[in-house]
Protein backbone atom coordinates (compact mmCIF):
# COMPACT_ATOMS: atom_id res chain seq x y z
CA UNK A 1 0.00 0.00 0.00
CA UNK A 2 1.32 3.44 -0.94
CA UNK A 3 2.45 5.61 1.93
CA UNK A 4 0.52 8.76 2.72
CA UNK A 5 2.50 11.88 1.86
CA UNK A 6 3.28 14.54 4.50
CA UNK A 7 0.31 16.81 5.19
CA UNK A 8 -2.14 14.14 4.10
CA UNK A 9 -4.10 11.53 5.98
CA UNK A 10 -5.87 8.38 4.89
CA UNK A 11 -9.64 8.25 5.14
CA UNK A 12 -11.66 5.11 5.65
CA UNK A 13 -14.54 6.42 3.58
CA UNK A 14 -15.99 9.33 1.64
CA UNK A 15 -19.62 10.41 1.37
CA UNK A 16 -20.52 11.31 -2.21
CA UNK A 17 -21.46 14.96 -2.41
CA UNK A 18 -25.21 15.56 -2.32
CA UNK A 19 -25.99 11.97 -1.34
CA UNK A 20 -25.81 9.65 1.64
CA UNK A 21 -23.80 7.06 -0.32
CA UNK A 22 -20.53 6.08 1.30
CA UNK A 23 -17.51 5.00 -0.74
CA UNK A 24 -14.67 2.91 0.67
CA UNK A 25 -11.39 1.67 -0.79
CA UNK A 26 -11.96 -1.39 -2.96
CA UNK A 27 -15.39 -0.24 -4.17
CA UNK A 28 -16.25 0.86 -7.69
CA UNK A 29 -17.53 4.31 -8.57
CA UNK A 30 -18.86 6.35 -11.47
CA UNK A 31 -16.81 9.49 -12.13
CA UNK A 32 -17.90 12.59 -14.00
CA UNK A 33 -16.18 12.92 -17.40
CA UNK A 34 -14.83 16.22 -18.70
CA UNK A 35 -17.08 15.84 -21.73
CA UNK A 36 -20.54 15.63 -20.20
CA UNK A 37 -21.95 14.11 -23.40
CA UNK A 38 -20.03 10.93 -22.63
CA UNK A 39 -21.05 8.26 -20.09
CA UNK A 40 -19.40 8.42 -16.67
CA UNK A 41 -16.01 6.84 -16.22
CA UNK A 42 -15.83 3.71 -14.08
CA UNK A 43 -13.01 3.21 -11.59
CA UNK A 44 -12.05 1.15 -8.57
CA UNK A 45 -11.08 3.21 -5.55
CA UNK A 46 -7.66 2.19 -4.26
CA UNK A 47 -7.15 4.86 -1.59
CA UNK A 48 -8.86 7.94 -0.14
CA UNK A 49 -6.78 10.86 1.15
CA UNK A 50 -7.45 14.26 2.69
CA UNK A 51 -4.94 17.12 2.68
CA UNK A 52 -4.46 19.80 5.32
CA UNK A 53 -7.01 22.00 3.51
CA UNK A 54 -9.66 19.25 3.83
CA UNK A 55 -9.55 18.51 0.10
CA UNK A 56 -10.35 14.84 -0.52
CA UNK A 57 -8.71 12.99 -3.38
CA UNK A 58 -9.01 9.39 -4.47
CA UNK A 59 -6.43 7.15 -6.05
CA UNK A 60 -8.26 5.05 -8.64
CA UNK A 61 -7.65 2.25 -11.08
CA UNK A 62 -9.59 2.87 -14.26
CA UNK A 63 -11.89 0.47 -16.05
CA UNK A 64 -11.95 0.92 -19.81
CA UNK A 65 -15.01 0.41 -21.99
CA UNK A 66 -14.33 -1.67 -25.11
CA UNK A 67 -14.60 1.40 -27.35
CA UNK A 68 -11.88 3.09 -25.27
CA UNK A 69 -9.42 0.26 -25.89
CA UNK A 70 -6.91 0.10 -28.74
CA UNK A 71 -8.84 -2.67 -30.50
CA UNK A 72 -12.22 -0.98 -30.07
CA UNK A 73 -15.61 -2.57 -29.47
CA UNK A 74 -16.20 -5.96 -31.06
CA UNK A 75 -19.28 -8.07 -31.69
CA UNK A 76 -18.91 -10.22 -28.57
CA UNK A 77 -18.43 -7.30 -26.15
CA UNK A 78 -21.52 -6.84 -24.00
CA UNK A 79 -23.11 -3.45 -23.38
CA UNK A 80 -22.02 -3.58 -19.70
CA UNK A 81 -18.54 -5.02 -20.30
CA UNK A 82 -15.47 -3.29 -18.85
CA UNK A 83 -11.74 -4.02 -18.87
CA UNK A 84 -9.73 -3.54 -15.65
CA UNK A 85 -6.73 -1.51 -16.81
CA UNK A 86 -3.26 -0.90 -15.41
CA UNK A 87 -3.95 2.85 -15.61
CA UNK A 88 -3.92 4.49 -12.16
CA UNK A 89 -4.78 8.10 -11.43
CA UNK A 90 -5.53 10.56 -8.63
CA UNK A 91 -8.76 12.53 -8.87
CA UNK A 92 -10.79 14.91 -6.74
CA UNK A 93 -13.41 12.98 -4.80
CA UNK A 94 -15.93 15.60 -5.91
CA UNK A 95 -15.90 14.06 -9.39
CA UNK A 96 -17.51 10.88 -8.01
CA UNK A 97 -21.12 10.79 -9.18
CA UNK A 98 -22.24 7.46 -7.75
CA UNK A 99 -21.41 3.89 -6.93
CA UNK A 100 -21.56 0.83 -9.15
CA UNK A 101 -20.76 -2.88 -9.01
CA UNK A 102 -18.33 -4.57 -11.39
CA UNK A 103 -19.09 -8.28 -11.23
CA UNK A 104 -17.01 -11.19 -12.38
CA UNK A 105 -18.26 -12.52 -15.69
CA UNK A 106 -19.52 -15.67 -13.98
CA UNK A 107 -21.48 -13.75 -11.34
CA UNK A 108 -22.89 -11.33 -13.91
CA UNK A 109 -24.41 -14.20 -15.90
CA UNK A 110 -26.20 -15.34 -12.71
CA UNK A 111 -28.02 -12.03 -12.21
CA UNK A 112 -31.78 -12.30 -12.54
CA UNK A 113 -32.03 -8.60 -13.28
CA UNK A 114 -29.24 -6.32 -14.46
CA UNK A 115 -29.51 -2.87 -12.90
CA UNK A 116 -28.07 0.34 -14.31
CA UNK A 117 -25.18 0.16 -11.84
CA UNK A 118 -24.24 -3.43 -12.76
CA UNK A 119 -21.21 -4.05 -14.97
CA UNK A 120 -18.89 -7.01 -15.53
CA UNK A 121 -15.23 -7.61 -16.25
CA UNK A 122 -13.55 -10.70 -17.72
CA UNK A 123 -10.31 -9.16 -19.01
CA UNK A 124 -7.49 -7.09 -17.59
CA UNK A 125 -6.09 -4.57 -20.05
CA UNK A 126 -2.68 -2.94 -20.51
CA UNK A 127 -3.43 0.59 -21.66
CA UNK A 128 -0.04 1.22 -23.29
CA UNK A 129 0.10 -1.93 -25.42
CA UNK A 130 -3.53 -2.99 -25.79
CA UNK A 131 -2.71 -6.45 -24.42
CA UNK A 132 -5.34 -8.49 -22.58
CA UNK A 133 -5.19 -11.04 -19.77
CA UNK A 134 -6.32 -13.72 -20.37
CA UNK A 135 -5.40 -13.54 -24.03
CA UNK A 136 -7.64 -16.48 -24.96
CA UNK A 137 -11.22 -17.33 -24.00
CA UNK A 138 -13.68 -20.06 -24.98
CA UNK A 139 -15.54 -19.50 -28.25
CA UNK A 140 -18.91 -20.83 -29.35
CA UNK A 141 -21.06 -21.35 -32.42
CA UNK A 142 -20.02 -21.70 -36.06
CA UNK A 143 -18.84 -18.09 -35.98
CA UNK A 144 -16.36 -18.97 -33.20
CA UNK A 145 -17.06 -15.91 -31.09
CA UNK A 146 -16.69 -15.53 -27.31
CA UNK A 147 -19.96 -15.38 -25.41
CA UNK A 148 -21.81 -12.07 -25.30
CA UNK A 149 -24.33 -12.22 -22.42
CA UNK A 150 -26.59 -9.79 -24.28
CA UNK A 151 -27.16 -12.33 -27.06
CA UNK A 152 -29.59 -15.24 -26.97
CA UNK A 153 -28.00 -18.62 -27.76
CA UNK A 154 -29.35 -22.16 -28.08
CA UNK A 155 -27.54 -25.33 -27.02
CA UNK A 156 -27.22 -28.41 -29.21
CA UNK A 157 -28.32 -31.52 -27.32
CA UNK A 158 -25.76 -33.56 -29.22
CA UNK A 159 -22.39 -31.80 -29.09
CA UNK A 160 -23.47 -29.42 -26.27
CA UNK A 161 -22.05 -26.42 -28.14
CA UNK A 162 -23.93 -23.12 -28.17
CA UNK A 163 -25.20 -21.34 -31.28
CA UNK A 164 -26.54 -17.94 -32.24
CA UNK A 165 -29.98 -18.37 -33.82
CA UNK A 166 -28.96 -16.41 -36.93
CA UNK A 167 -25.96 -18.71 -37.43
CA UNK A 168 -28.21 -21.79 -37.61
CA UNK A 169 -30.92 -20.22 -39.74
CA UNK A 170 -33.62 -19.48 -37.17
CA UNK A 171 -35.00 -16.22 -35.85
CA UNK A 172 -34.82 -15.20 -32.20
CA UNK A 173 -38.60 -15.68 -31.97
CA UNK A 174 -38.27 -19.21 -33.35
CA UNK A 175 -35.36 -19.95 -31.02
CA UNK A 176 -37.46 -18.99 -28.00
CA UNK A 177 -40.00 -21.67 -29.00
CA UNK A 178 -37.46 -24.48 -29.17
CA UNK A 179 -37.53 -27.20 -26.54
CA UNK A 180 -34.91 -29.32 -28.32
CA UNK A 181 -32.20 -28.27 -30.72
CA UNK A 182 -29.67 -30.28 -32.70
CA UNK A 183 -27.02 -28.59 -34.84
CA UNK A 184 -26.56 -29.63 -38.46
CA UNK A 185 -23.63 -31.89 -37.60
CA UNK A 186 -25.53 -33.74 -34.88
CA UNK A 187 -29.06 -33.86 -36.26
CA UNK A 188 -30.70 -36.43 -38.48
CA UNK A 189 -32.58 -35.19 -41.52
CA UNK A 190 -35.99 -35.73 -39.91
CA UNK A 191 -35.36 -34.50 -36.37
CA UNK A 192 -33.71 -31.09 -36.22
CA UNK A 193 -35.92 -29.24 -33.77
CA UNK A 194 -39.17 -29.59 -31.87
CA UNK A 195 -41.62 -27.12 -30.34
CA UNK A 196 -40.95 -25.98 -26.84
CA UNK A 197 -41.88 -24.80 -23.42
CA UNK A 198 -38.48 -24.17 -21.88
CA UNK A 199 -34.87 -24.20 -23.02
CA UNK A 200 -31.39 -23.13 -21.96
CA UNK A 201 -30.78 -19.68 -23.38
CA UNK A 202 -27.12 -18.97 -22.79
CA UNK A 203 -23.78 -20.59 -21.98
CA UNK A 204 -23.77 -18.91 -18.59
CA UNK A 205 -22.36 -20.10 -15.31
CA UNK A 206 -25.22 -22.57 -14.73
CA UNK A 207 -24.16 -24.64 -17.72
CA UNK A 208 -22.39 -27.80 -16.59
CA UNK A 209 -21.04 -28.56 -20.06
CA UNK A 210 -17.53 -27.55 -21.00
CA UNK A 211 -17.29 -25.67 -24.30
CA UNK A 212 -15.45 -27.26 -27.18
CA UNK A 213 -11.71 -26.81 -26.80
CA UNK A 214 -11.46 -23.74 -28.95
CA UNK A 215 -9.92 -20.52 -27.81
CA UNK A 216 -9.76 -17.06 -29.24
CA UNK A 217 -8.19 -13.79 -28.20
CA UNK A 218 -10.23 -10.73 -27.21
TrEMBL record:
Domain PHD-type: 138-189
Localization per record: Nucleus
SUPFAM superfamilies cross-referenced by the UniProt entry: FYVE/PHD zinc finger
Annotated Pfam families: BAH, PHD
GO biological process, one term: flower development
Signal peptide: none
Lineage top rank: taxon: Eukaryota
Primary residence: nucleus
Residue stretches of biased makeup (Polar residues): 195-205
GO-annotated molecular function: chromatin binding; histone H3K4me3 reader activity; transcription cis-regulatory region binding; zinc ion binding
Domain BAH positions: 21-136
Entries under Gene3D superfamilies matching the protein: 2.30.30.490, Zinc/RING finger domain, C3HC4 (zinc finger)
Keyword set includes Nucleus: yes
Name of the featured protein: Chromatin remodeling protein EBS-like isoform X1
Name of the gene encoding the protein in the UniProt record: LOC101499437
Amino acid sequence: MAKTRPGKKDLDSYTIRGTNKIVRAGECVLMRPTDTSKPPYVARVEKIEQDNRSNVRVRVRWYYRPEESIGGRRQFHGAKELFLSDHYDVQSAHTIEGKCVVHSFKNYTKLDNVAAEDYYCRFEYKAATGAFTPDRVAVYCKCEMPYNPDDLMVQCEGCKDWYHPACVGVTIEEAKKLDHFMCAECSSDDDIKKPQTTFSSSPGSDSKVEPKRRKRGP
